[in-house]
Amino acid sequence: MILDQSVAQQTYIEDCEVCCNPIEISPIFEEGELIAFSSQSIEQ
After folding, report:
1. What percent of the chain has pLDDT above 90?
2. Is the pLDDT confidence value at 34 over 90?
3. Angle (nearest 5°) at CA 42 between 37 and 44
4. In the 3-class helix/strand/coil scheme, how is 1-44 assigned residue by residue?
């Protein structure tokens, strides 16, 4: 998974590379460094 560190805090939906189910990705960057990351399945 490639994360865009040009945006300090973001939330987006991406398909899982393994099972293809949608997951919500929420990375937080500070000065270009990843300081927090969360993900959760949004499959119904």
Report:
1. 77
2. yes
3. 165
4. CCCCCCCCECCEEEECCCCCCEEEEEEEEECCEEEEEEEEECCC
